[in-house]
Each structure stands twice: as structure tokens, then as C-alpha cells.
Write a structure and sequence with these properties.
Radius of gyration: 21 Å
Largest sheet: 4 strands, mixed
CATH architecture of the largest domain: Orthogonal Bundle
Number of strands: 8
Number of domains: 2
Distance between the termini: 57 Å
Strand content: 5-15%
Strand order of the largest sheet: 6-5-7-8
Structural class: alpha+beta
CATH superfamily of the largest domain: 2-methylcitrate dehydratase PrpD
Helix content: 40-55%
Order of helices and strands: HHHEEHEHHHHHHHHEHEHHHHEEEHHHH
Number of helices: 21
Length: 468
Amino acid sequence: MIAPELARWVVGPLSLPAEVEHAALRHLLDGLGNAVAGMRAGAAVPAVIVATGLGGPEEATVLGSRTRLPAPAAGLANGTLVHALDFDDTHAGGLVHATAVVLPAAFAVGEQVGATGREILDAAVVGYEVACRVAAAAPNGFHAGGLHATMVAGVFSSAAVAARLMGLDAATTTNALGIAGSQAGGLLAFLATGASTKQLHPGFASQAGILAARLAAVGATGPETVFDGPHGVYDALAPASVAGGRVDTGVILRDLGSSDPQGWETTRIGIKPWPTCQLAHVTMAAAQLALVEAGVAATELAGLHAQVHPDSASVVCAGDRDLTRPVSPYAAKFSLPWSVAAILLDGRVGVDTYEAANLDRPEISALAARITWDVTDGAGVVAADAAGDVVLTLADGGTVSAHLERSPGGGTNPLSDEALFTKLQGNVGTTAGELAAAVHWLADVPDLTEILALAAAAATPSAQEATA
């Protein structure tokens, strides 16, 4: 069975290749920046208010503040903060936002138990591997059934992180994973309405995973067949993929703990350059490339036609809503034509692009209405790794095409350290350098005190930034 073997690895000795450790530190830094940006923007206010109101012992800090809450409540708030702007990383194989369910548990439980930076980093890598592997075992399987893979896989990841930091043994950790499976879910119903439930999913997963580990620690039990079945997570939440033979649970344990850095899923997580659904990124980037080649203004385009992977089309090109006039800023992040139009007209996409005032910009809606697409067969590649192909039609009837092998930020096209720092500066302002340095030395520090203090300071823009 998978869960007992996975649990033994989760709590066992860990030797991280340098490349894996570097990747994990990049993702933790990116996640912190996104959480601070979410706090600055007030994008997770309901989750923070409710988490704060739950009461209880002061065990862990809400990122971007000095508020301390019970660790599960901090997980709820921080998971929502990391994901609130949809600017957080994506593992293509599992289509899962890994840091949004790893960082909250690692920091909350790490702070609660007084873990060292080294222990927190090791636990985070364990979390990255669990989240990515559980999701990648059913590529698009959870999404196809209407569920958010980040929450489904995230409960296991958070439980694993918490179990390691709490010092649980393998048998108790197996129970924690089994308990976590009964809390997996996360409906994609927000897609048609612009509701904020997707932002909450990593918070739910982080809170649930921490609670699962705590329950196991005091004697609650969970099924060790949670991954294998019968009635396990894949049988229940990805039944069509199970029936179609598209679930490969061998992915969960394959090459686990390998001495080869390429055997670690942590190195395959992509970092977003833009705060919008990653499934639109490759088309956005290809459209930018084609516009440069055309040498015209976006307002002069007669149209744009794209090739879109079927699993991407179901999320960012769905016909059950108006993609040219999104009903909310969050809905705009899941409209391929709106995001493509915005990046072509403005030459950039940032957090401010998705402010409510921009939803009424007629030039974006007008260009979005001239964007069309064909759905490809999608064979042999997951949606987040698919190529981007676009054809621009110019006012004189001429055409310009562009092709990209994959979206920027991941896989063979990773975001550079320099680009990551530029993103961090945009998210946290003048404290970016200090925060980057503090995270870089995470493995050598006794606790999270400095990092948490810097995040709190960054969440309040300086007078210079506020007037910029």
C-alpha cells in the first residue's frame, strides 16, 4: 500500500540535492511575496477575519502581520493569502498550486513547535513532493470531475508537513494521511460566477492537514488504503480517470528521495510571471511575441486566433460565461481572451490589471471579442505544459503567427532568479532585498523570527511607496 510507504519517507531521514533545496527556497520566497501582496491588497480579508476570530493559543503568525493564532487557524489565513491573487506557483503535471498548501503548514507548525529553519525547509520539500505527486497521479483527473486539485492534494501535503514537524512516527503519519483524505475537495463552481471560493481552497487544505496530523497524534485513525482504494481518493474524486486508466498511483512513490535532482518534483514547479490562471499564460506570451513581430499597435488588430489545449479551454475559454466582460476581477483571471487582450493593449499584466475599474475598459472588451480559438486534441501533454500557437490578423488582411513550446516560468523556460526578485519587489516593495536574504539563509537560522518580522513590515507600504 502507498500511504504507509509514503509515510515512512515523510518522517524519515532526508538528503536534499542542492538543486532541490535551491528550488524550494525560490518557491518559499515567491510564496511569501504573494502572501504579502495579498495582505497589502486586502485580497484575503474574510479568511483573516474568521481565522483571527476563532480564538485559541498564540502558536503561529498570520503572514504580513504580527497577529498570532492557533496553527490550524494560521494555516487557513496563510493558505488563502498565498493564493489570493492567483500569482502563486503551479506544478504542471498535477496542475496544483504547491506553495499555497506547503508554506502555510510549514511555517505555522514550524513556529508552533519551535523548529529550526533547516527542519522547516526539509518539511517544506516533503510537502512539495507529496502535493505534486498525489495530483500528478491523476493528470487533470480531479479538475475533470469539477474539483480543485490544489485542495485535493493539499490536504495530504499539509498533513505530511505537519506530521514531520510534530515528530510523528510512520504509523501515526499513515493515519494522518488517511484522515486528511476525508477532507479532500474544493469545487470548481467558482469558474462560472467569479466567487472567491478558489482563494479559500489552499487555506482549507492547510487547516485540514494540520488538524489531521493533530487528530492522528492523539489516537484517531485513517484508512491506509486512502490512495489505493477501494473507495480511496482516486476512486471517489477522479472516477472517470480511474475508469479510463489515466490514474497512475505509481507516480506517488516513483524515484522518491532520489539522489538525482531530476527525480524530485520540487524542481518541476513553475513560478508565474503574471497574476492570472497559468493555463492562459502560453497564449498570452505567444500573442505578445506575434505582436512584436507584426510591428503594429494592438488596437490595429482585426483579430487573434489561438490553439488551446482542451483541459485549458474548459477553464479559461468556457462558454458558460461572458469572457469579454468578466463579472469580477477574479473571473477575469480565468478568461483567456480578456487576459490576452489586456497584455496586448498594455504591454504588461500586473496585480493592478485585475482591479475592478479595469473590467469596464471598452478597449479590452472590444479586443477580447475579436479573439477566437480552436481546441486541440491535447494528446501526450498536460495542459500547463502545452505549446502556444496564435495567428494575428492585421487590418489589411495580412497575418502573423507565433509559436511557443511552453509558457514562461516553468519546465524548460523557468523564471530566472533575477526575474523572481523583480516580481518580489513588485509584491513587497523596499524590503525585498532583506526578505530574499533571510529566506536564502533559512537552513542556517534557529527559527522564523526574522522572516516573519520582515513579512509584517513589508505588508505596510512605506510612505515613499504609497506616494509612488
